[in-house]
Each structure stands twice: as structure tokens, then as C-alpha cells.
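User: I'm preparing a small set of examples for a lab meeting where we compare how different chains pack in three dimensions. I only have the primary sequence for this one, and I'd like the structure in C-alpha cell form so I can line it up with the others. Please keep the answer compact; I'll paste it straight into my notes.
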Amino acid sequence: MTDYFALFDEPRRPWIDLEQLKAKFLALTAEAHPDKIHVAAPANREAATRGFAELNSAFNCLREPKERLRHLLELELGSLPKEVHEIPSYLADLFTEIACLQRDVNAFLAEANRVQSPLLRVQMFERGREWMDRLRAVQARLGERHAGLLQELQAMDAEWVRLDCVPVQRGVLLQRVEQIHQRLSFYTRWNAQIQESLVQLSL
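Assistant: Understood. Below is the C-alpha cell output for the 203-residue chain.
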């Protein structure tokens, strides 16, 4: 498996400076772009194309916190982090709130689709705006939790570097990284569901 951190000459760590990563990406892709060797032998052009695609994949992985943590855990543990299908107890209340809200929004959308009267459509439009406000409020709370996890990753960075040669303590940090990855996975999934409902309500 390719170490995406190594491609950018970055140490394996949970946090990464996105501006620095972007600068390295632009420099590397400028050198490796297939158009620069369009007169080369086919095998060299194919290798350049593969290398360019790999750089793109690496950049897209490392710039996204959830994907970066997944890749880091796979590199450090030798396998992908286990997928959690059951909602952890510390997220149960939020999950229940979002599930109930989504259920009610779906019921409203089904009702709105049956309405034919122009007058009732106006009323449904106003009700739809209220549902959108409620969804956006939950989405904002998810955003705050997401931002809090990113702050924790950034704060963890110095300790991660300091404990690089202390396997036991590094293992404890890896467990926390896995927990953060799980939370980010749930938040990302729920945010996508809310965004889809917002799109449906705006149609």
C-alpha cells in the first residue's frame, strides 16, 4: 500500500498543515504532469499518468480529516479501522434527534408532494422553510462538533510527535485517533443526509 504521507515527504500524523500540503501538491504535480512528457515513450507516459493520478488520490485523501485518519490508522495498525455500525452511547441522543427529524421531514415531503391546490402549496412552502431552519440548526451543531474534533487533532499533534518512540503511549493516542475517525464518519454521514433533505425541501 502506498504511504500517501511519504509521497509528500510528510511524517505520519493525525494533523497536517493544509496550506503546506497544497503547496507541495502543486509543486509535485507541476513536475509530474503527463503533458510535460508528451513526446516520451508510451511506457514513460503511462508511468507519468499513473504517478499523477496517485498524487491526486494522495492529496484528496490527506486534505480530508476523516480519510487522512483512516489512511493513518491503516498504515500504523496494518489494517483498516473497524467499521462501527452500532451508534456509540455518547452519540445516541444526537442520532435519535436526527433520525426523528429526518422521519418527520420525510413525512412532510410525502404530504407536500400530494398537494395540488396553489393556496395549499404556499402554506406547504412556508412549512418547508420551517423544516429547513430546523435542519440547518442541527447541521450547525454537527459543524461545531466537527470543528471541535479538528481542534483536538491539532492539539494532539505535538504529543504525537513527542511520543513517536514510546509505543505504549503511541498506542493510546492511536485509540483516540480511531475514536475521532469514528465520530467524523458519523458526522459526515449525518450531515450528508441532512443536506439531501435540504435539497429535497428546496425543490
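A couple of notes for your slides: Residues 25 and 56 are 8 Å apart (CA to CA). The chain is about 80% helix and 0% strand.

User: Perfect, thanks.
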